[in-house]
Design goal:
Layout lengths: L5 H29 L4 H4 L13 H15 L19 H29 L2 H21 L19 H21 L2 H21 L2
Helix pairs in contact: 1-3, 1-4, 1-5, 4-5, 4-7, 5-7
């Protein structure tokens, strides 16, 4: 994607991010409902309406500023709330709900790579970036820090949900520190770029 117009590039990346975040959060909500928790339905999250899943700071403002200032990408969607007490096999079901979002991003990355392999150059460039960003989001969300999906492995009992929710409110401060004090962002970029190259090569040579 051309760096000649950084504002336009930042807007485009935020739009793509928002598009990718919507099915990610929908997947969490849909799986939770299927497993017996109607909390996402009651909160209007079992939908592909992007407004239902936007966090105006995490989905729009922070990604826009981070792209403009550093070229890096940091953002999140509005977390889907669940009530583990509604699950029958709560430990298994919590993990299934948590993994649904990253799994959806992998599916979206494959679709984007397929589009990039057959589309005209300008569309292919945008689709390739969408593939990269979707893989990045899948890996990012597996980091075991609240409120990211990977942190659900530490939810050992439904009674700990209130504690988890408290940690979740401040977790993004920890994520910001993690990104700016370590090389984790660089690792995510490298693995996502490699995955994108693999998928693009797979479809272009199919």
């Amino acid at each position: 994607m051309s760096p000649d117009f950084p504002w336009a590039q930042a807007v485009l990346q935020v739009v793509i991010f928002w598009i990718l975040t919507t099915p990610h959060e929908f997947a969490h909500a849909w799986v939770a409902e299927r497993l017996g928790d109607d909390t996402p339905r009651l909160q209007g999250r079992v939908t592909l309406n992007p407004i239902a899943h936007v966090d105006w700071i995490g989905t729009v403002a922070l990604p826009f500023v981070s792209v403009l200032m550093s070229g890096a990408f940091l953002g999140w969607g509005k977390p889907v709330m669940t009530n583990p007490m509604n699950f029958k096999g709560w430990r298994r079901d919590i993990l299934l709900v948590a993994l649904a979002g990253p799994a959806m991003n992998i599916v979206l990355a494959v679709i984007a790579a397929l589009i990039a392999a057959v589309a005209p150059a300008q569309v292919a460039e945008v689709a390739a970036f969408a593939c990269y960003l979707s893989l990045y989001l899948a890996l990012f969300n597996l980091i075991p820090v609240p409120p990211l999906d990977g942190s659900r492995i530490w939810l050992l009992s439904p009674s700990l949900e209130p504690v988890y929710m408290t940690l979740q409110r401040f977790g993004f401060l920890g994520i910001l520190v993690l990104f700016y004090a370590t090389r984790i962002g660089s690792y995510l970029h490298t693995y996502s770029e490699s995955g994108t190259g693999f998928l693009l090569g797979l479809f272009r040579h199919a």
